[in-house]
């Protein structure tokens, strides 16, 4: 949750903003209070503090925490040097930062940022980071100051979350979110709003289906990150939204065993960088078994599978994930292999049963080939089944159409413009087609 810094901890910062004479007051419709006009002031870009509790960088912060091996990096002293430098590093590393700097240099700051009474940015973190970089790195003197709207000193935690959610609706603000960070915001609102998706949807000005889908996708990412035990983080799956979308939607109504098998196939395929368009062919009850059989036939992968099964790693059926899944599904054949592979970065090695090791990157490459082959074969099978079913499906449609003709025929014949001859021609054509179809049986 976003926590408003206690003004008692830094009266000097609060007093500085309080003493600044506003250049104007600006209407902010997203501010939840009835009084929506906020004072606009100008402050030095190096003075304001980045929000370390903003959802737009939640996944990236988890990566920084992991790299620093400091769980309280962003909480022990949010306004301190370590947390602020880490947050600044995240903002500078985001996609489009260079273009944002160029735009600010060309057009200047178009919209004011929003800060707390202590000078912590609630909105405008990226723009302020870009201005700071222009001033400090590029020595562009016009970027020395940033225009800010100041929130009331008594602004509460929930008001700040609601403000962020409202601002997120705007297109220019939403572009600063990855889908995972947006899902983090939805997850927090969902917990706060009594696990009521309808209330979250109203807060986000989205449909219930939209917020539910994002929440469900994030739960799948949580599970894969838990399996990885630090080897992979949420931010590593930002580019895999389509795969998690299809996975979450497919397993929503499936029995636990089938859901676990498809999940294992998707997780392993995602780690191996298999195209999600290929993975969709593995949305079937026997997905895990098909992949296991392919791996067992591969001389390069069989020793890895044996090693995983002889020394089980955390799997989707373990207590770690039982709470998320609701119940523990039967163990799937890929779970041990998935646990072993997920918990290693591509630069690490995987242990084999004979004491030897193999490169995780090499294993992932072999897995990509194996899973792609299985997916291609499953796709061919789907097309064959579709071709076999197509005539029956079309026949059902034709039968329904003929039934409607029988039902509507009396009314049609009762109309003055009815043409019996034209209708007879149509019936003859239908009969001719039926004769042709019957003839194909010979």
Q: How is this structure best described in words?
A:
- With 442 residues, the protein is of the alpha+beta class.
- The chain has a domain at 7-156.
- Helices cover 58% and strands 7% of the residues.
- The chain has 19 helices and seven strands.
- α12 crosses α14 (287-296).
- The longest helix has 54 residues, at 360-413.
Question: Summary?
Answer:
By secondary structure, the chain is an alpha+beta fold. Helices cover 58% and strands 7% of the residues.
Poorly predicted runs of 5 or more residues: 1-7, 313-326
Walk across the major sheet and give the strand order.
Answer: 1-2-5-3-4
Global morphology: flat
Work out the strand percent: 5-15%
How can the largest sheet be summarized?
5 strands, mixed
Mean pLDDT: 88
Approximate helicity band: 55-70%
* Overall number of strands: 7
């Amino acid at each position: 949750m976003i926590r408003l810094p206690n003004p008692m901890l830094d009266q000097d910062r609060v007093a500085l903003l309080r003493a600044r004479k506003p250049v104007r007051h600006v209407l902010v419709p997203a501010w939840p209070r009835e009084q929506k006009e906020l004072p606009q002031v100008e402050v030095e870009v190096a003075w304001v503090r980045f929000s370390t509790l903003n959802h737009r960088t939640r996944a990236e912060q988890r990566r920084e925490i992991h790299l620093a091996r400091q769980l309280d990096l962003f909480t022990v002293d949010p306004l301190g040097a370590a947390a602020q430098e880490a947050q600044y590093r995240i903002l500078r590393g985001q996609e489009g930062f260079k273009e944002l700097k160029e735009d600010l240099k060309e057009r200047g700051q178009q919209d004011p940022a929003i800060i707390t009474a202590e000078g912590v940015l609630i909105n405008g973190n990226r723009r302020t980071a870009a201005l700071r970089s222009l001033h400090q790195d590029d020595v562009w003197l016009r970027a020395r100051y940033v225009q800010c709207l100041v929130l009331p000193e008594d602004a509460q935690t929930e008001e700040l979350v609601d403000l962020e959610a409202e601002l997120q609706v705007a297109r220019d603000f939403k572009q600063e979110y990855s889908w995972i960070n947006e899902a983090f915001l939805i997850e927090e609102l969902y917990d706060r709003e009594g696990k009521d998706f309808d209330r979250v949807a109203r807060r986000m000005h989205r449909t219930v289906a939209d917020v539910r889908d994002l929440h469900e996708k994030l739960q799948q990412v949580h599970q894969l990150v838990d399996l990885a035990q630090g080897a992979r983080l949420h931010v590593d799956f930002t580019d895999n939204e389509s795969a998690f979308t299809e996975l979450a939607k497919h397993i929503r109504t499936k029995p636990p065993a089938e859901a676990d098998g498809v999940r294992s196939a998707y997780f392993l395929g995602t780690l191996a960088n298999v195209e999600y368009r290929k993975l969709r062919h593995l949305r079937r009850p026997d997905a895990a078994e098909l992949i296991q059989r392919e791996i067992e036939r591969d001389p390069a992968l069989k020793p890895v599978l044996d090693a995983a099964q002889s020394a089980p790693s955390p799997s989707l059926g373990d207590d770690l994930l039982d709470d998320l899944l609701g119940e523990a599904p039967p163990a799937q054949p890929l779970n041990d292999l998935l646990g072993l592979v997920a918990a290693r970065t591509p630069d690490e090695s995987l242990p084999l049963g004979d004491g030897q090791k193999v490169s995780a990157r090499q294993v992932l490459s072999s897995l990509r080939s194996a899973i792609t082959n299985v997916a291609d074969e499953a796709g061919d099978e789907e097309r064959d089944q579709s071709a076999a079913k197509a005539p029956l499906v079309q026949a059902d449609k034709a039968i329904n159409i003929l039934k409607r003709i029988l039902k509507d025929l009396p009314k049609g014949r009762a109309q003055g413009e009815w043409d019996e001859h034209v209708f007879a021609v149509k019936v003859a054509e239908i009969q001719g087609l039926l004769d042709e179809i019957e003839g194909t049986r010979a």
